Amino acid sequence: MVLDLKRLRAERIACGITQDEMAHLMGWKTRTPYAKRENGLVDIGANEFIKMAKILGFETNNLDIFFTSDVPEKEQKTVKT
């Protein structure tokens, strides 16, 4: 399963939270650490993700909407038979 960063962004926007606000709620002084994670430049740790989800109003038992089972095309391997 892969974390769907587009869904994370969409949920943040739907809650009316800016990247700057989210960063401060996460305890960071600037928006850069959050923006890098939301844009896929830095991996999101499990604890960070859970904190983000809680900020967005999601319970830990309802996080499956943030994941996709699709494997990105660049990560797919061609199977030769």
UniProtKB/TrEMBL annotation:
* HTH cro/C1-type domain residues: 8-63
**Gene3D superfamilies reported in the protein's UniProt record:** lambda repressor-like DNA-binding domains
| InterPro entries, sorted | Cro/C1-type_HTH (IPR001387), Lambda_DNA-bd_dom_sf (IPR010982)
The record's listing under CDD domains reads: HTH_XRE
Q: Which SUPFAM superfamilies match?
A: lambda repressor-like DNA-binding domains
Entries under Pfam families matching the protein: HTH_3
GO MF assignments? DNA binding
- Protein name, per record: XRE family transcriptional regulator
What is the species of this protein? Staphylococcus felis
